[in-house]
Amino acid sequence: MTHLNSTMVSRPSLNGEHFDVVVIGGGINGVAIARECARANRRTLLVEQNDFAAGTTSRSTRLIHGGLRYLEHGDFAQVRESLREREQLVRTCPHLVTPLKFLLALDGNGGRSTLAVRAGLWLYRRLGGAGHLCSVNSNPQERLERLLDRGRNFSLFSFEDAQCEFPERLVAEWLREATEAGCCTARNHTEVLEVTVRNGRATGVRLRDRINGNEESIGSAQIINATGPWADSVCQSSGVQTKHPMVGGIRGSHLVLPKFDGAPDAAVYAEASDGRPIFVVPWNKQILMGTTEVPDNGNPAQAQPSDDEVEYLLSSLKRLFPQVPLGLRDVHYTFAGVRPLPYSPDSNPSAITRRHIFHNHADDGATGLISVIGGKLTTAVTLARECAATIGISAKHSSAIGVGSHSEIENLIERHVSDLAAEGGIGIQSARGLVEWFGTRGQTIVQLASQNETLRAPLCSATDHIVAEGVYAFTSEAAVTLADVLLRRVPIALGPSWSAECGRECARRIGAAMQWDDHKTATELESFEMERSAFLRNPRAIRTESFAH
To answer: Which CATH class is domain 97-160+247-341?
Structure first.
């Protein structure tokens, strides 16, 4: 995207500077790697061509899970590692990573015996090595049974995993921790034109700041290519030749639907007619359904669900819940992301390992350049530590200590909500929104909001989130555009009640607080609307447009 203009932000030039480590790619893996390097007192530059978390991270199913189906492929080590990281994230990031009850609904056509499934779930819990995560008061299994197709003989099983409703916010927190370490410079909307290679060794990067158009040359002997599905493109633009592609892109598409009557509080894990796993997950006061597995080697930024994928997901929903009257007209929006799986052209996508791989380009004539392949939300911290170790950096483990039980966490959060509401003179729902998305940093936003009534006002009529959150995103969380704020830092534009009027209200109120003139406000709003419509597609509107032409 090239809509950014030079009047937005003034950023000091980096031309000619030298960093110990340059990390290319500002998704969850790249930000986690930069954080580890900065904590180890290495001067680190993190660059992202668009905005942090705007790529694969924001286009996932938003689950923090051990990978129950990996057990079928015998990848016990991956499951154990993922479950350990899941537990750590639930305890250290309780406002963003929350336990979630899952119900596994199998109709007997998959060829698995009940005994085998129970044995697998028992092993899954054992590998997790922890007690119960969830405290669901209702009976989700009973609610699910009322919805399922009664003509099929379903067996229901329950297990526990976790959800990160907004990994964009997790990335923002880790980015803040990286920059607060004092050794990390972070630049979004900055394109890597090439990794410079001389005499068989990576020596730095050449950048273009997409805000002001300036080109800069940066020196570094350690370059981490953590661009996910763009990893091969970075190498190609740098003249680094690999024996074969590193990434085999697999597109995963999702539907976002209204929360229907009788929907269980738990996530549902079932199988489509072709045996592929599908998830129906409560998310952001809506239902998130996915996903597909379709080879996609196109531009990852342009990945969109095909008509066939939308139909596949809707028919899978109808097959599972024949009494639920949802169709194409009810879809709030669709989105798709490309999983950067290791290149395996002859393998079934479901069987390709989800373990991360570090490709050292020394044999490709670029010593000092390492590409990160694979990975997922759950294991980003482990990936970052291992990546740091490959370049000789001993990672500094976080000193954060989690609360012992989920009920204790909930009680602490509720006390914090009450304290913020009283201190800031804001409504209890606004305070809850601060705690859920900003954790303890909500205190800083309340202090900012106390300056004037404008900052305490809601961003728009459809939300309790306040203007001060948008200002904080610009001043403290590296947001550069209105889209950075409304889609990722304060992602209210993903909600069920969003409308065009909401966008106009947000632009006016944030613009006034940031002292934008009318032209700047209008430009920001137009750019935001373009980015949102390119990311979140309304399949019904798209089909209507195509028929009109």
So the answer is: alpha beta
